[in-house]
Amino acid sequence: MIKTKNQLVAKIKEHNSLLSAAVMGLGVGLIITVIFTKIGVVLVLVALMIKSFGYPMSSTIPKLIKYRPVTCPFCRDISQVRINASEFTCDNCGNRLAVAENGKVRLYKHLKLAVDNSPTVFGKPVIKAPFNSGVEV
Q1: Rounded Cα–Cα distance for residues 42 and 86 (Å)
Q2: Which of 4, 31, 45, 131 has the fewest Cβ atoms surrounding its Cβ within 10 A?
Q3: Do 62 and 5 meet the contact criterion of CB atoms below 8 Å apart?
Q4: Which pairing describes strands 67-71 and 124-125: parallel, antiparallel, or unpaired?
Q5: How confident is the model at residue 74 (pLDDT cuts 50, 70, 90)?
Q6: Cβ(93)–Cβ(131) below 8 Å
Q7: pLDDT tens digits, one per residue of 78-112
Q8: DSSP state at residue 127
């Protein structure tokens, strides 16, 4: 599920590009067949319209959802996270983070997530500790 504003914008742009490319390909294919040239030209124009609406959609749709700023304890990047999200992946460093209701990162659950997601060396997890967490690495 999409939990941050940047992830939502990227998904909208991705789906818009895929849809416009599919319609464009179908239109060009129909133009090549000579019999359906008029339909192909219409589909190419529709694909261009779809592509041109991608940027306005990616800037207006995220404004309909409420977000709160959450600071990643690993990279200090501020991500705009949906209000009802309890976990999210940092847009900058890619770490999974658990969020409390007040918008702060829950370190006890976060350290469990870090252990679950961390690579292992000889069966022991290699943990990257967040800044100022008091955890020795």
Answers
A1: 45
A2: 131
A3: yes
A4: unpaired
A5: confident
A6: no
A7: 888 888 888 888 888 887 888 877 767 776 555 55
A8: -
Considering only the C-alpha atoms of the chain, give the largest distance between any 2 of them, rounded to a whole number of Å. Answer: 72
Tokens linked to 6: 């940047």
Quick one: tokens of 137?
Answer: 């690495």
131/95 Cα distance (integer angstroms): 13
- Residues forming a β-bridge with 79: 70
Residues ≥6 apart with Cβ < 8 Å to 90: 72, 74, 75, 77, 79, 96, 97
Domain ranges of the chain: 5-63, 67-125
Supply 54's token pair: 């991608």
The residue whose two tokens read 């800037």 is 59
Task: List C-alpha distances in Å: 81 to 4, 35, 59, 65, 123.
Answer: 4, 51, 16, 10, 34
Within 10 A of 43 (CB to CB), how many other CB atoms are there? 21
Q: What are the φ/ψ torsions at residue 66 (nearest 5 degrees)?
A: -90, 135
How far, in Å, CA of 105 to CA of 117, rounded? 17
- Separation in Å, CA 87 to CA 3, 76, 90: 8, 17, 10
Tokens coding 24: 């464009």
